[in-house]
């Protein structure tokens, strides 16, 4: 029962207290910091000063190396490189100076090697993109060269051809995504501007009234969740492009199919909501439509997706009610993270069992306060028996840990 769980939790707290008092020189504070000090070692201001001076010296050396690299780059007529490239060069120079090379010579050598590698990479990149319909901009080309050169110099790829092929593949993917996104947004704008005003008003009213699939709901989904929805739409566009359609035609078709799919889902969703007698508001409906559509795009059957999303929505609503009820019942008192989670979980269980939210919150709070009081009494008694001196804060912290352990045990045992 609860009392046996309480005694077991107190025993664990006793072991913790013994460890704190016997093994840690500074006691409770060191335990909270997870620091274990040797009894024969104390804070040394001289050692700390030496460490501070060493860190300062390292900073000065690093600054000198950075200046030398900048000078070497300027000597080659090169503007400052991207941060990752510059830090790589600084690291190279630092290693060379540690092995006895003069700073200026090390900087000149590292920059020279980098320039040669970057030149070879640039020639290869230019040859690879010579037939591209839309070649990269100067800025994009510089980024491709820097990335591939850095991979080569760090030995992240075995040879130049692989490095160049990798960065060009990534650039093509990003370019295709930009093109598809632009085409989708253009299709959306075209649809919005060509839609007759009466149809637009009817579509908007349909969304407010919970009607079937509509332009307003689809547009809301696309504009409010661009990353998720656009990813699904881009996938559809890519499939159509692979079949030979232009990106513009593919984007219009993908958007039209998205509308049709949402219309079908909306009908099924409304039927499920009505069957379960749920009170789903306008914004929640749009969110559910979007989530189900994305699940269907990922391969889930619509009925399964609707059931899963409605279950999530109901569970989230219960959790929100539980949190609000706890907040009201505790008179806005805030509990620490784990205690809050324990109480909310208990309230959710009681709500699921048919108890009202307010009654469940009051019951959970009363149980917690009673358990915390008993835990505090047990910790106090233990301290007296063990001749241990605990401050009020230490007693409260141990009592809360004991109560949490006992609460877990009671919950696992079924309440």
Described by strand count, sense and barrel closure, the largest sheet is:
none
Helix and strand run? HHHHHHHHHHHHHHHH
Helix content: over 70%
Q: What is the tally of beta strands?
A: 0
Residue windows where pLDDT falls under 50 for at least 5 positions: 204-221, 410-415
| Basic shape | flat
Secondary structure topology:
Blueprint: H1 2-23, H2 28-32, H3 45-75, H4 83-98, H5 103-128, H6 138-153, H7 160-194, H8 197-208, H9 215-224, H10 226-242, H11 247-276, H12 282-297, H13 302-329, H14 337-352, H15 357-385, H16 392-413
Helix pairs in contact: 1-15, 1-16, 3-4, 3-5, 4-5, 5-6, 5-7, 6-7, 7-10, 7-11, 9-12, 10-11, 11-12, 11-13, 12-13, 13-14, 13-15, 14-15, 14-16, 15-16
Question: How would you describe the overall organization of this protein?
Answer:
This protein has 415 residues and is mostly helical. Among the domains are: 45-156, no CATH class; 183-300, no CATH class. It has helices at 2-23, 28-32, 45-75, 83-98, 103-128, 138-153, 160-194, 197-208, 215-224, 226-242, 247-276, 282-297, 302-329, 337-352, 357-385, 392-413.
Features:
disordered C terminus, 415 residues
What's this entry about, in short?
This protein is mainly alpha-helical and 415 residues long. It has 16 helices and no strands.
